[in-house]
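We modelled the chain as a single entity of 407 amino acids. Its sequence is:
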Amino acid sequence: MMKTKILILSVITLIFISCIYSIKQVKVNYKKLPNLFVNVLGKSENEVNEKIKHAFNQLFYGDNESQRIFYTVGNDMAYIEDILHKDVRTEGMSYGMMIALQLNKKDEFDRLWKWAKTFMQHKSGQRENYFAWHCKTNGEMIDSNSASDGEEWFVTALIFASKRWGDGEGIYNYSNEARKILHAMLNKVENSDSRKVVTNMFNKKEKKVVFVPSGEADDFTDPSYHLPHFYKVWSWFDKENSSFWKDAVDTSRAYLKRAVHPLTSLSPDYSKFDGSPLSIWGGTQNNFQYDAWRVAMNVAVDYGWFQEDEWAIKFSDNLLKFFYSQGIKKYSSLYTLDGKPLNKDHNTGLVAMNAVAAISSSLNIKKDFLNELWEVEIPSGQYRYYDGVLYMLALLQLSGNFNIYWN
């Protein structure tokens, strides 16, 4: 009888150890981004580190009126301000959290998260656990609707924070907060034409992110919201919906191939789920505009982390060849998809995103795009918000300081 009990206990112990081992040995393959400033431009590690430090200090702690975009509130909160529009957006808050996470700035991360959690996240009702896409700097909601990219970046920043710093108590239990948002994304009403009905942030049939989870805005998407590299991380984290997120990786990569122009690699701001350009509400969102700048970053970082889709090389090469043909120091910021300029601005935000395309480009001209970003001034003045966050993200991504935190 004793031998039987010992045998049973031994078997149970082996099964338990096997389960623990299998959990710990979940195989995830990813790579660290290279430091292209060192490898391609020949800068020293110290030069690169000083450049990042200077940019962060100016954008987060520089002059109140002309330099900073990060403003503290009390002892434990802060917000990123869109200076031009004098408001706070989930886009900027989530980017700010990711920047802080990558630089190991836990205090700044927690301050931003508490402000977003306190003032932007809905606590009940149809919108529970979604975020109002923009608020006044005093925390008052301007629009209760959500812009899906904010939630996407919040989730990924929180997952990485959990892995890098560990979970704390309450709202600083990062993994728990990420799960709440992910659950909300897939568990509202599937779709509706009524603006009074809040819907899923991902269309389950299309397996693609929607522009806004409400009314007609959930019937189309935004190419710059497609983040297959984030969905891959979510598939490791969210075991309940792992299969869905794996499918979302594939559908987003396939979608982006259809959404960009085959020769210029320019994408529209908005598109239908099949990738065809879309204009709505009397706008010109079928053109390459401010949202679309970020597609280059998303494709390049996805390739840099996982190297699973060789199309990224073709995309980046075509994009850089197009902008190089327009003049490296003078290309416009807005275009039709086939390459007709729509203004004469040359914005630092687009300079930054084009430089990130160097991660997945095979062309020697990528050095010119890297060099332009290296030489451009840190954004300041009234337009420093959007240009500034994209500039800061690009510095991190091109210096090898934009990493997956998992193990």
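As a brief sanity check on the tokenised model: The two ends are 43 Å apart (CA to CA). The first strand starts at residue 70 and ends at 73.
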